[in-house]
Design a protein that fits this description.
With 286 residues, the chain is of the alpha/beta class. It has helices spanning 62-80, 83-93, 95-105, 125-140, 156-164, 193-202, 206-209, 219-224, 230-242, 259-262, 278-281; strands at residues 10-11, 14-15, 51-52, 111-116, 144-150, 167-169, 172-173, 184-188, 212-217, 246-250, 265-270.
Length: 286
Amino acid sequence: MYLIQLYGHFLMGAPVKNVSSDGEWTVVLPSKRRQGRRKPKPKVHEEEEEKPWKSDDLEVDPQRQARLKKKMEISINKIESSKFYTALIEQLKSPEVSDQFRLVLGTETQLQMVVYGIGSIEAYESPRFQLSIAILMKREFDWVGNIEVFDPVLSATESSVLESMGCMVLSVNEQARREALKPTLFFMPHCEANLYNNLLQANWRMDRLCRIALFGNSFQMYEEQVTVDPEVIRATKRIIAARKITSEFAIETVSDDYFPAFHDSSWHFFSSGLDSDLPLLVSVGS
């Protein structure tokens, strides 16, 4: 999921997503074994600037491409026929959640989807499940527009498969600092705290926050995990502040098949208010 720093080869028995030479982002695939509700663990790294990106793997391998397309088809079909997906769609169509999306859309007819930190869809099943949800949402709802994807671990082969499935692979590592100048669904499953923090900081005004729907780690979980560690406090500062203006809807993973990909994930929406309210939550420069 974004330029990634290796966080050990395993965490709680789970494979991590690959490492980048710059060590920018850390994302860990959670363990498949359910051990109660596990809280997201904020991981901290030095701030990085937006910059152009090119995969280290520059050649498309036709055989790998064909195998990956098949893997994605299997994942999409498995998700689509699951109780988990049925429950997820029912939640999205429920009045309380669908009304939130209508507020984000405003007078627009579609919201764009930006997928950050999806990880290697070739190496791991969980990223394929996560991407499958994004693709199925576009098929299910006419208010979901174009899908843009970025993760620096993506190979040229993976990028070509994404494009064949109707996604656009970004050429710039935005560090999740995209300004929401139009209605946007940021699809960020299991990204690290710094990235949610970056997104909030780039949009820390109500006329932008109200254009955002965010799928990712539960903000409530971060709030419950507040520690005295200064780096963790800094990484989660805006997340905790945003809790005061956030409507959060947790998803139900239903079975252990989808627990690694979606545990402790929620939909987040930001209520409208006065711009003057926001600086009281957290200072602009932090």
